[in-house]
Amino acid sequence: MTDKITAVKGMNDIVAPDSAHWEWLEARVRDLFARYGYRNIRTPIVEPLALFVRGLGEVTDIVEKEMYAFEDRLNGEQLALRPEGTAGVVRAVVEHSLLYDGPKRYYYMGPMFRHERPQRGRYRQFHQVGVEALGLAGPEADAELIAMAADLWRELGLQDIALELNSLGQPVERQAHRQALIAYFEQHRDQLDEDARRRLYTNPLRILDTKNPAMQALVEAAPKLLDHLGPASLAHFEAVRRLLDAQGIAYRVNPRLVRGLDYYHHTVFEFVTTSLGAQGTVCAGGRYDGLMAEVGGKPAPGVGWAMGVERILELLKAQQRLPAAPVPDAYAIVPDPQAWPQVMPVLRALRAAGLQVLMHAAGPDGLGSMKSQFKKADASGARYALIFGEAELAAGQVAVKPLREGLSGPVTAQTLLPVAEAAEWAARLRPAGAT
């Protein structure tokens, strides 16, 4: 017997009925983004390795430990599976000169890849939805993006999501803060764990993001970046806060919020929840005004965020906000295979009229008895059974039988309806609110 091939650990299949929840969420997201004027962009899953080394930072955890990088065996090119979406979007904007006629607003959806230890809410192939506003330098762009995420939580009915906010200022200010951090942590080197010691001279800002309980008091007393910001950076941050206040969006300034990628400047933010345990960040982003130049383009501002689809779905499930799994409107029961030439045109007409119809088809043992077909119709969750019996078809009719109690509408008991008028009565059988 041939060994069974299974999926790569941490890379999961998404099958029905769960896939219906993904489609539902994606549709809600697309609708909201369209109202904000964002348009879809789709970039390759495989990108040049240099894009992420230069864009994200060579000493970030993603580049150092998590990225799927490999050499193209045909031409020796150094490639990587994308670990995040922003760098690829910026690369596309630079490559195609998309800012030649003004700022752009884009959104993307798709899989990302990081070699992590798989656990709830954290997978090696995971999915992100992200938005990027490019060519917009003002604080109003930051505030609009944050408001868009807040609107999404409201429209999804989600609770227990809090906004944390900080500013990383400009590179020269971060450099001054970096030196202050190094000097501070050098004085307390004996209290640093192995990871913090490794980062002390390469990326000391990331020490502030440690999850080690033994280091929390030390980190809390560390120099704060906000104390190193100049007038322009402070003015930008205060303007973002005023715009959030004006929209009634609550937030907490968290001076330890640094994000894990080197391209961030000025505003950074996270939406966090206590409902998912350790994987509490559901959406995060910020401003990245230096990234365009890092990937070889003319300097231009940018700001964006990304949310983890798996985590949002976990949160929707935990808060019982997911919709019921979709079911067909009708299930077609066909006792005699000789009837297919008459049945199939009717089913096409019903579907063209908007009815969702599941057709019973033959299995290895044939069509099965009427009783077994009715069992399958009931198990499908369909609201109605359409019975294409010999007598009904001879009279140019189909029997429509309700399968659920309490159905409202024109058919509340088994009824014969004319096949020739399928489109007319299909419209009447659709549930209220269906399109």
From TrEMBL:
Residues 25-335 form the Aminoacyl-transfer RNA synthetases class-II family profile domain. Pfam families: HGTP_anticodon (PF03129), tRNA-synt_His (PF13393). Its EC number is 6.1.1.21. Gene3D superfamilies: Anticodon-binding domain (3.40.50.800), Bira Bifunctional Protein, Domain 2 (3.30.930.10). It catalyses: tRNA(His) + L-histidine + ATP = L-histidyl-tRNA(His) + AMP + diphosphate + H(+). One of its GO terms (cellular component) is cytoplasm. InterPro entries: aa-tRNA-synth_II, aa-tRNA-synth_II/BPL/LPL, Anticodon-bd, Anticodon-bd_dom_sf, His-tRNA-ligase, HisRS-like_core, HisRS/HisZ. Its main location: cytoplasm. Keywords: Aminoacyl-tRNA synthetase, ATP-binding, Cytoplasm, Ligase, Nucleotide-binding, Protein biosynthesis. It is found in: Cytoplasm. GO terms for biological process: histidyl-tRNA aminoacylation. L-histidine binds at E84, G85, T86, R114, Q128, E132, R259, Y263, Y264. It comes from the Bacteria. One of its GO terms (molecular function) is ATP binding. Homodimer. Belongs to the class-II aminoacyl-tRNA synthetase family. This is Histidine--tRNA ligase. The lineage of its organism: Bacteria, Pseudomonadati, Pseudomonadota, Betaproteobacteria, Burkholderiales. The gene is hisS.
